Amino acid sequence: MGDSDAAGALTRRRRATLAAGRSASLLPMNGRSAAVCQDSVTAEVSRDDGQGKRDRSLETVRSKSKSEKKKCRNDISDRLSCHKTQQSLLSSASGYSNYRGVLNWCVVMLVLSNARLFLENLLRYGILVDPIQVISLFLNDPYSWPAACLVIVSNVFILVALYTERQLSKGSFTELVGFLVHCTNMAVMLTFPAAVVLLVPSVTPVGGVFVLGTYTILFLKLYSYKDVNMWCRELSTVKAKKLARSLSCKSQIHMHIPMFTREDMYYFVFAPTLCYELNFPRSPNIRMSFLLRRLFEMLFFTQLLVALTQQWMIPIIQSSMKPLEDMDLSRMTERLLRLAVPNHLMWLMFFYWFFHSSLNFTAELLRFGDRQFYKDWWNSESVTYFWQNWNIPVHKWCLRHFYKPLLRRGFSKKVSQSAVFFLSAFFHEYLVSVPLRMFRLWAFMGMMAQLPLAWFVGHFLRGNYGNAAVWISIIIGQPFAVLMYVHDYYVLHYRQEAD
Amino acid sequence: MGDSDAAGALTRRRRATLAAGRSASLLPMNGRSAAVCQDSVTAEVSRDDGQGKRDRSLETVRSKSKSEKKKCRNDISDRLSCHKTQQSLLSSASGYSNYRGVLNWCVVMLVLSNARLFLENLLRYGILVDPIQVISLFLNDPYSWPAACLVIVSNVFILVALYTERQLSKGSFTELVGFLVHCTNMAVMLTFPAAVVLLVPSVTPVGGVFVLGTYTILFLKLYSYKDVNMWCRELSTVKAKKLARSLSCKSQIHMHIPMFTREDMYYFVFAPTLCYELNFPRSPNIRMSFLLRRLFEMLFFTQLLVALTQQWMIPIIQSSMKPLEDMDLSRMTERLLRLAVPNHLMWLMFFYWFFHSSLNFTAELLRFGDRQFYKDWWNSESVTYFWQNWNIPVHKWCLRHFYKPLLRRGFSKKVSQSAVFFLSAFFHEYLVSVPLRMFRLWAFMGMMAQLPLAWFVGHFLRGNYGNAAVWISIIIGQPFAVLMYVHDYYVLHYRQEAD
């Protein structure tokens, strides 16, 4: 390298004496760049890597020492040098990583391709939206309202629970008696509506889901109510013992005295939570604008969901009956993927409609302080994280009244977790099979399948891959179950009619 | 508020003496929370806003002063309070903004919906991919290779340019003569191949595009070559004058002595740039792994592009001929959107294939230092930014040899910019119309339409909206032009055959 250095210096001197460009041809191209324009050189030094760096920097030092930079920085010689050593942005050598625009790209692509699907759908089927038809989903004949009646009846169970707790607090019920009353009360709560839905023909599937949903929620609420009041009694007895030993009256500040008023009970029944508490955090006042915005969202999304179902879901489902009967695998997959998109979008809308709009609306109306109805499940990198964060009221209930009690009873974490999934699976099946009046266990298996899935994702996928896996399981899993049920329902009812 | 405070303190004391829960019912729910559990209170104070804050904080101070927190922090009373005042993540009140998962969602949705389209396509058309057929796009009869011959001929023009510059530097050509020779040389470069493509029937459209593309690139290169050498002469004359005045021999270091060797010329011809420079920045050595990766990408994407065209583009284009003839607007839109997706994806692949893989491959092979062939156009929030950054070689050329010279000649920025777009529009039309042998001006108008579009986006859209607008213009604009040309070509050729 020393030689080339010397050579470089030499030739530079030589070139300085106006020798013709021939001599320059002896040099490697790199060497020649010294002659062009000092500031292009100084510019390069910072970027250029490896060979020819040393003599360049020498060169620049020399140039800096001389006061000729201003001359060199004239227009023409700026024009002459327009390249500098640098990497392409996409090659790993350049540490570039700003792909902000890609998100916009994804959004635009999704919107456009769905606009296309929408247009194709309109061209093929015309407009199928029919809001009136929705009513028929709830009512078979407008003179009997079984669903509504059942919901009204549910008050009985609420009052039974309240009455029992009153007796227990007074001491006129022993713990055992109270426990038995509660158990029977709740057992009836689950069996009675199911029986009615199964036996009364005028209950429509949608009406059935509505009723059983209401009763399930009540069941969970009353279970929590019973537990909490029991814990209060335990606590106060503990305190009483303490008091007996040390007579420091201070310790009684921690006495828990629940109040068994109807207001308290019904506030809990309507409050957007499944976990009873002696005193819920309250928001200072009702924000009217917030309330109205949520109300508007509720109405808007209801309409949108109905419209999309009629225009988008039903045609696909109907068109996928034939392939399902023929067990034509490739076409079934095609139909499944075709159904996945609208189904998923509607699930997202439903999520927002229920967990953000509706629950926040209720909470605002009741000045209920705790608005954490969901956490950031969209970022979940494992299946368990998703199930722990997308439905906080239920998760909270499971944790407080099922998972932790099991742990306290000495069960292992694995067992308790499986038990939670089992419970959830049971209720999923309960809420689907009974209204449809057919027991296929798709929903049950769907929930139980989450356990191996969770194990797989947790062990083999991290970060964005885990997140993607969760998304796929949501997007593909649901429409699969939907198709199964619809197919069976279709076969059960319409095929029989056909025969 | 003072009263309620006093009342709170009073009741607290009263409750301390084991009075029954009745008394508590006199209080508002908020007040009661004081009794539950100190640490739940302390927890709330930090979050709870507005009403009942003052007496709470009092309460906590009092609690802190007493040493009873450890007792209160026992299991049961933790169980009892499970809510705290907080906002939902999606409501603006919570400053939450982490939607990392949404990008994964978009990707998954895009992949799934395209998988669906792919499957549908296979089910409908079967496999249409046929690599051999590609050759027929370049050759009509395998015994005449007009495209190849034209490319070989192009060397003549290169050597003419080199010869002219040599004469100019020797001074045996005057500036005027040199200018005239260059002009004729370049005029012929544009007209001659076009004439051949138009007149020789054995030139296929694809072959034609290839030839004209090569000649256009050469044209731009030689234009730059001529300009740069001219500037060098100007500079040296300036220097000579300076020298005459002040005899400081130092100033001659900035003498620019171009060398007119064939190696130098052909290095520039093959180098991945359109702007000539006396000495290009060089990379120190050839990175074999980098070279091979780029080579693999080149081969892979070539195959993929061919396959997708045959399997995806052609069926859609064929199926959209009928609606185009009938001028059935809604169906035309549907077909346009249907074409937009594959067309856009293939454009992206082409971009990567050409601007990243191919140009980097050439650059690595020639140890060409400047790898900036594109900038971050995917983040562009204005149309002008896109055109300035997606194709850097051309942008650099326009800036250096067309835009700035115009400015120096005293034209306004607006005029010069429009002129650049006009030039680009001309070449777009030139590269499409001549090979297709029909002059429809779609490409020309497409480019010129960028001016009003740029004005609109620049004035009315900012940030992500601007970015989205740019994406839409790319995704929708191209297939529109494609459909127009294909339709006209189809009408011109196949319909005539039909008649």
Give a short synopsis of this structure.
The structure is a homodimer of 499-residue chains. Helix content of chain A is 74%, strand content 0%.
Q: What is the beta-strand fraction of chain A? A: under 5%
User: Percent of residues of chain A in helical segments?
Assistant: over 70%
Q: Roughly what is the average pLDDT of chain A, rounded to an integer?
A: 80
Tally of helical runs of chain A = 21
Shape of chain A: globular
Order of helices and strands of chain A: HHHHHHHHHHHHHHHHHHHHH
Give the class of chain A from helix and strand content and strand pairing.
mainly alpha
Instruction: Tell me which protein chains meet in the greatest interface and how many residues each side has.
Output: A-B, 132 and 129 residues
Question: What does it look like?
Answer:
Two copies of one chain form a homodimer. The first copy, chain A, has 499 residues and is mainly α. Chain A is 74% helix and 0% strand. In chain A, α3 packs across α4, α10 runs antiparallel to α11 and α17 crosses α18. Chain A is globular. At the A-B interface, α1, α2, α6, α7 and α11 of A face α1, α2, α3, α6 and α7 of B.
Observed structural traits:
homodimer; 499 residues; mainly alpha; disordered N terminus; transferase (chains A, B); transmembrane (chains A, B); MBOAT_fam (chains A, B); membrane (chains A, B)
Present the secondary structure layout:
The structure is a homodimer of 499-residue chains.
Chain A: H1 2-16, H2 29-36, H3 38-47, H4 53-65, H5 69-72, H6 75-80, H7 100-125, H8 131-138, H9 146-170, H10 175-199, H11 205-245, H12 262-270, H13 288-319, H14 321-326, H15 329-365, H16 383-389, H17 392-408, H18 413-436, H19 442-448, H20 450-460, H21 463-498
Helix pairs in contact in A: 3-4, 9-10, 9-11, 10-11, 11-18, 13-15, 15-21, 17-18, 18-19
Biased composition (Basic and acidic residues) (chains A, B): 45-66
Keywords (chains A, B): Acyltransferase, Endoplasmic reticulum, Membrane, Transferase, Transmembrane, Transmembrane helix
GO molecular function, one term (chains A, B): retinol O-fatty-acyltransferase activity
